[in-house]
Amino acid sequence: MNLLDVITGSNEPEKGAKTMESIEVELHLIDEDPLNPRKFLSDKDEDEMVESIKDRGILQAIVIIPHPDDATRYIVKDGNRRRRNALRAGLKTIPAVIKAEFSELDQLTANVMRKDMTIFDLSHSKIKDEEERVEVLNDLAELINDLKIIQKQYK
Question: Which of 68, 117, 133, 147 has its CA 20 to 30 A from that of 6?
Answer without folding.
Answer: 68
